[in-house]
Amino acid sequence: MPENTRSTRPAARARAKRPGKPHRRVSKAQKKKIVRRRRLALAGVAAAFFVVFFCRMAWYPITGGQLRAFGWQGETSFAEVWQINHLLRKYHITSRPSLSMFFATAASESGYGRHTLEAGDAAYYEAHGYRAEERGAGYLQLTHREEQLAFLAAMGDDFDGTDTAVYIAEHYAWESACWEWSVGKTSPAPNPNAYAKARGASDEVFLATQYGINGWTIADSALRAIVEGEPYTVSADGTTVTVLGQTAPTPIGWTDRLAAYEKASAIWG
Question: CA separation (Å) from 126 to 121, 122, 132, 154, 183?
Answer without folding.
Answer: 9, 6, 8, 27, 27
